[in-house]
Specification:
By secondary structure, the protein is of the alpha+beta class. About 40% of the residues lie in helices and about 15% in strands. A hairpin with a 7-residue loop joins strand 1 and strand 2. Its main location: mitochondrion.
């Protein structure tokens, strides 16, 4: 009996010690993470605190000249400059490498003008032949895909040549590319037009002497809402399982329709974590956009300086040519500098 009583006392004492240690740790944790009320009130009265409070309740904060200009990114940034967006996979990213590649991309854009184009635009690309000196190859086609990131960014052009579908993959920052022309600027309903391989040939046939289609000044990028029918009997992919808006599929068997419903994932559009893993954060986009805006200003200044240098070089060449002509002329025909008495 005494042994049982002593064991129960030890058990109670151990529990009390554990409870006391837990309470002490909780109090210390609260004291460590405690924020004074004065500091909280000071933050609420600051411009940043007012802006956050207004955004939380859906009311725009009052305008103040002292409010710092927050960095904003245009909504179409990922469509206009998809090559500048880094890889969204976290363990494949390297901040230093991204900045170095961005500098190389800016240097390349100083040498060649890379216009704005989208998937669905018709382009004409002129490239140098590495195996034949002083030879240029030009290919015209519709852009059906843009993929990869940074300096490895590439786009695919497709055209029908003599009844045969031809596709060429170009690296956007390849030094062999000498000129990129936008013959028709437009966008499509889908970000990937690989289904044109199974479409009728008239939907991706363009003449090589196609003239550029000019848009009125101030107009936006037109959206082509055409729906392409799939007429091929042997599809390269099961297009019914993809959420494609620019495709007209033929009547499918009932079993195929049930299989597509089974593989469909309508909940993916509400998956916030998937969007977070597959997209770049707004802060990173804003930082990249700031670098692009700075590059635009530097590029404009570089072009102005290059034009001035060309003018100076031409004037020097003209002056040197005149001097050479005067030196070659006989002395009798030279105009005398001294005045005759």
């Amino acid at each position: 009996m005494a042994l049982a009583f002593s064991n129960s006392n030890k058990f109670l004492l151990n529990n009390q010690q554990i409870l006391r240690s837990v309470l002490i740790s909780v109090v210390r944790y609260k004291q460590r993470g405690h924020i004074p009320d004065q500091l909280v009130e000071h933050h609420r009265q600051s411009p940043l605190g007012k802006a956050k409070a207004g955004a939380a309740v859906g009311v725009s904060p009052p305008k103040d000249d002292k409010t710092p200009n927050l960095r904003t990114t245009p909504h179409d940034f990922k469509y206009v400059y998809p090559d500048f967006l880094p890889n969204p996979i976290p363990y494949l990213r390297d901040r230093i490498l991204e900045k170095l590649e961005r500098k190389d991309m800016f240097r390349r854009r100083q040498q060649i003008e890379i216009p704005e184009f989208y998937v669905g635009s018709v382009l004409g690309v002129t490239s140098a032949d590495p195996y034949a000196p002083n030879r240029r190859n030009r290919f015209v086609g519709i852009c059906i895909q843009r993929e990869r990131h940074g300096l490895k960014h590439q786009f695919t052009l497709r055209n029908i040549v003599d009844g045969v579908g031809v596709e060429i993959i170009y690296e956007l920052y390849n030094p062999t590319i000498t000129k990129i022309e936008v013959l028709k600027l437009e966008r499509r309903l889908d970000e990937n037009l690989a289904y044109l391989r199974d479409a009728p040939p008239e939907y991706c046939t363009f003449p090589f002497d196609m003239e550029p289609v000019k848009l009125p000044p101030g107009s936006g990028v037109p959206l082509n809402t055409i729906q392409v029918p799939i007429t091929s009997t042997h599809w390269q992919y099961k297009w019914e399982r993809h959420d494609l808006k620019g495709v007209l599929l033929p009547k499918l068997p009932r079993s195929v329709g049930k299989a597509s419903e089974r593989y469909s994932q309508p909940w993916r559009q509400w998956d916030i974590m998937r969007q977070y893993r597959t997209e770049i954060h707004d802060d990173d986009r804003a930082e990249i956009f700031e670098d692009i805006e700075k590059h635009k200003q530097d590029l404009a200044q570089y072009r102005i300086d290059s034009k001035e240098n060309v003018k100076i070089t031409r004037t020097r060449q003209k002056a040197a040519g005149r001097k050479a002509i005067l030196d070659d002329a006989p002395k009798a025909n030279r105009p005398s500098s001294s005045t005759s008495q």
